[in-house]
Amino acid sequence: MSRIEKPADSDPARNALRTGKPTLKTIAEITGLAITTVSRALGNAPQISETTRRRVHEVAAEIGYLPDRAAQRLKTGRTNVVSVLLDPHEEILGFGTSIMHGLARALQGTAYHLIVTPNFLDGSNVDAVNYIIRNGMADGLIFSRTEPFDPRVRLLLENGFPFVTHGRTEFSIPHAFVDYDNFAFAYAATRRLIVKGRRKVTIILPPRRLTFYQHMLHGFMTAVREAGAAYEIPEALDLDSPADMIRDYVRRRSAEPDPPDGFACPGEVSALATITGMSDRGLSLGGEYDIVAKQTSRLLSQIQPKVETIYEDLTAAGEAMGRLLLKRIGGEPIEDLTILQSPQLSFPTP
Amino acid sequence: MSRIEKPADSDPARNALRTGKPTLKTIAEITGLAITTVSRALGNAPQISETTRRRVHEVAAEIGYLPDRAAQRLKTGRTNVVSVLLDPHEEILGFGTSIMHGLARALQGTAYHLIVTPNFLDGSNVDAVNYIIRNGMADGLIFSRTEPFDPRVRLLLENGFPFVTHGRTEFSIPHAFVDYDNFAFAYAATRRLIVKGRRKVTIILPPRRLTFYQHMLHGFMTAVREAGAAYEIPEALDLDSPADMIRDYVRRRSAEPDPPDGFACPGEVSALATITGMSDRGLSLGGEYDIVAKQTSRLLSQIQPKVETIYEDLTAAGEAMGRLLLKRIGGEPIEDLTILQSPQLSFPTP
DNA sequence: GAGCCAATTTAAAACGTTGTAAATTTGCGG
DNA sequence: CCGCAAATTTACAACGTTTTAAATTGGCTC
């Protein structure tokens, strides 16, 4: 344990300062230990004596050592990276923001970095997934807007690559997911409109290919049937339609016979577009018609307090997804790696 | 060039398939060349014969070789990564989206990956910059919302780290930037309101600490003074204020004596909030008051076509920033690495 | 103090790539 | 067919880390 025979000359330390990059070697030279030992000590390996463990940690902290991620990655094959696949559609109005907020929180304090892979690259989302798998760009993947037989999910399952989706699928093999109970949302929203005495309700549904289209439709229809209420469902329109298309549709429809006067809007943009379309006809929110909207940011209720909203806490979803993914990467079995969020009545307190 | 003596047994290829990861070694074994040669050939080094160069490329393509980024990074010290620092404030309503779209386009076809470092991590943006520099997490950095003496810029300049900002600073040392001519925007917007015959104009300014606060103020004041128009500037409010605060302010102010009837809104959220605040008082856009807004997405004009808008093409800005950064990383001098975008009258065609 | 086990430390190899320097082949004049 | 330069290919050593297997130390018993 004598650390005097090696003069521990100040070269390494000074050197580390000059090149700005202390490595295990630097610490080894300073402490007079072997590189292996230093590595072990920092990794809190069991066979290292408490004294050296402490000393190594001290020195490491002192010279500001940070492990070289490239080297770790090369050696271990693990990237310590979690990647989020962002779909253009979910980026508007801060979907990405909230989810990523939660993810960042879940990854806080772990060795994992969060990397956003924007989907714009070129082709479909599947290409991006393929690229990430084959290039070993990440240890785990997170994405949303699943389809019942989502090709990304299939690809990941086939390759045994850890992932968590936001949204369910209908594969027989289970996988980790976090989802919002859109059935419950649609049911509650429609119910509220009916209870308010609205004559005829309608809903703007997600694109048909997405899994939650069915959930949403089912919730809406259940509420409608229970109450024996009148309803209609716009065919040429979905949640991804541009705002002007939604606005124009609402405006046009409201001038035709027997228009709906209760709108379930599972998105803030669609709610705003609906308001504008109706007010173009001189119809006023809360007067001639009502809206119950799903709200994922504070924006809508801030601007238009008269819109009734039901919250989806995307930050919580992100945090949950992050935690599930870490477990999944750690090799935990899929069971219990699924979460269904219930709709919330008030804005989540951060 | 005979490639028969080494039986080129199918082991390496099969092996590569099994582990899923062809390396230089795999190609070397298949072609019977040395690893170094393969590396050279793929790098299109001059001293490689055309025949082997071609052959190596063929094989590489065939087995789907992709260089291991971790190894490259470890060896060369270059990460081939460009990082975007996202500030929470710019993420709402797709700022991040548009800029990243442009960035992705600029990086298309290069070896560079785009990585988004969300700022939520914990502390200030400066910490994130520091972390990236010290950890060598990227070869270049992009961020926005600069202050006149932005600490991030100072840090990066001190370390000679390549970066491009969205927004200018007042440092004496020049640096690469892309900025929007906010003076021109504010001037034009105010001018339009005055020309429309508005009695009293106002503007919602950015937070004081940001560089473009001055530009914006200056443009507004220039138009006001030229025309000798009446004006006012809300003190307790800025572009980052929550929408309800802006809405409430507008509503309150419009009930007091001598309220403004021309609003320059350098942001879409502030424009929406203003509309709501005014319509709560029964005042109608284009009638009792007008708005000229800065528009960075298609959302606002889709929902409210009556708002006059002046466009800022953030996608183009992103693309420009990407290109500048690549040049900067390549060691080009700063001169000519600055771009000032002019306001645009119509939505940019993609 | 020899012998032995456990505790602790170490040397050496490897991950996949690139840079340096040296080796091999080729072409060509004599 | 030798010699010699140019053209082409090669071996070897890194980059910083972890892993495997081996070496060293210390503490004990006899």
Automatic annotation (TrEMBL), chains A, B:
Q: Which Gene3D superfamilies match?
A: 3.40.50.2300, lambda repressor-like DNA-binding domains (1.10.260.40)
Q: Where is the HTH lacI-type domain?
A: 22-76
Question: InterPro entries, from UniProt?
Answer: HTH_LacI (IPR000843), LacI/GalR-like_sensor (IPR046335), Lambda_DNA-bd_dom_sf (IPR010982), Peripla_BP_I (IPR028082)
Q: Which UniProt keywords apply?
A: DNA-binding, Transcription, Transcription regulation
From what superkingdom does this record's organism come? Bacteria
Q: Which PROSITE patterns match?
A: HTH_LACI_2
The protein, known as: LacI family transcriptional regulator
Q: Which organism is it from?
A: Shinella yambaruensis
Q: What are the top taxonomic ranks of the organism?
A: Bacteria, Pseudomonadati, Pseudomonadota, Alphaproteobacteria, Hyphomicrobiales
